[in-house]
Amino acid sequence: MENTVYKVVELVGSSPDSIEDAITSAIQRAALSLRHLQWFEVSQIRGRIEKGNVEKYQVTIKVGFAHDLEHE
């Protein structure tokens, strides 16, 4: 049985609608260029306030994926 090696990258996603949309946006964009995405961890949640209302959500996440040693 082979051991798996994981790589972790940090991403920042944003959305005017919700924290969940900000996370989804970051993961979907990362999936365009990173293979074997397997998990994420939220490390920061921020937002922008305009005239007393939340204007934008911003989320920093760490995304883990299996490191493919065959294609280096």
UniProtKB/TrEMBL annotation:
NCBIfam families: DodecBact
The name this protein goes by in its record: Dodecin flavoprotein
Taxonomic placement: unclassified sequences, metagenomes, ecological metagenomes
